[in-house]
Write a structure and sequence with these properties.
alpha/beta, 10 strands, 320 residues, 2 domains, Rossmann fold
């Protein structure tokens, strides 16, 4: 049976792969000491604690529920009870379902078609999420499900943020080292030659082609943090190349399928992240589109982490 192509998978497959692994964090930031998980707690605690007891909130593109969980924890710490539902178009795997009283995550929900009645929510949140949707439709849906005077806070990718710069650097480095899937396909041919019990000359030729592809990829690596994802992927292939006689062919081919899907998902997430990030002009267009749907801008500013690194645009809106 032929392997399914990535294009045949349903929308959001690259994020489904991420969330089904059980992860809850959304982003890491590169620092001099290495990658650090972005801690958005301050921005969200100050937002969620302003809601009255019993308020109903929706977290858009919730992923592993990092923001929804922060909202729930902030409410508990303040002695309040909030009803928070997180939605995402990806399959959320172990993160989905009822996580605690008043906290639920739902996968398979496109932001352009929210399955809730008009005026259902007192507030909305989104961290690195709404910009991935069809913004025109998603903003209209947000406005529809919010009650009058309801508030929304969005953290949106900034083109100059540490997160976006890291994505650009890593993607550029990765494309230089592994510009296509040629090395993976040569690995598949090498193990396939063993599986089919080809003549020794055919096996050696397939093995040599795979080893040479890995050698060339490794030669393109540079001693820079931006090359770390590429280095990890090359090391994985190098381990397979060094164990051609050690690995059982069917098992190795199955591992290659998983590896190839993971690399494709990583590439897709990074490329999409770069594509949706907003410069000042893009932010202004987002705010104008929001105003046209009845969402008034309360504040829009750059958000920085505790180390002073630029992380995102922070946008606060109010439903007219």
């Amino acid at each position: 049976m032929s392997r399914p192509t990535h294009s045949s998978r349903r929308p959001g497959w690259h994020w489904s792969e991420y969330w089904q692994s059980g992860r809850t964090e959304i982003m890491t930031v590169d620092t001099a000491q290495g990658p650090v998980t972005f801690d958005p707690g301050k921005a969200w605690t100050s937002f969620f604690t302003t809601f009255q007891d019993g308020a109903r909130l929706i977290d858009l593109a919730t992923g592993g529920g990092q923001v929804a969980r922060l909202g729930h924890a902030a409410a508990v710490a303040a002695g309040k009870s909030l009803d928070i539902v997180g939605v995402d178009y990806a399959d959320l795997g172990p993160n989905a379902g009822d996580l605690a009283p008043g906290l639920r995550l739902m996968g398979g929900v496109p932001l352009e078609r929210l399955p809730f009645p008009d005026r259902s929510f007192d507030g909305a949140s989104s961290q690195f999420g709404i910009e991935y949707a069809d913004v025109r439709l998603a903003i209209g849906e947000v406005a529809r499900v919010l009650k009058p005077d309801a508030r929304a806070r969005f953290l949106i990718h900034h083109t100059e943020s540490a997160v976006s710069r890291a994505a650009v650097a890593q993607t550029t480095a990765h494309d230089r080292v592994l510009p296509d899937d040629a090395a993976i396909q040569k690995a598949r041919r090498a193990f396939g030659a063993h599986l089919k019990r080809l003549p020794p000359a055919g096996v050696r030729a397939a093995e040599d082609a795979f080893r040479e592809a890995v050698r060339r990829a490794a030669a393109r690596l540079e001693p820079s943090d931006a090359f770390q994802p590429a280095r990890y992927h090359v090391d994985y292939l190098a381990d397979l190349a060094g164990g051609l006689a050690r690995y059982e062919p069917k098992s190795a081919l199955a591992r290659l399928d998983v590896f190839e899907a993971g690399v494709a998902a990583w590439r897709q997430r990074h490329r999409n992240q770069i594509k949706v990030a907003l410069d000042r002009g893009g932010l202004d267009a987002f705010l104008q589109r929001s105003a046209g749907k009845g969402l008034e801008t309360v504040d829009a500013a750059a958000e920085h982490d505790e180390r002073g690194a630029l992380i995102a645009w922070r946008v606060d809106l109010r439903r007219n």
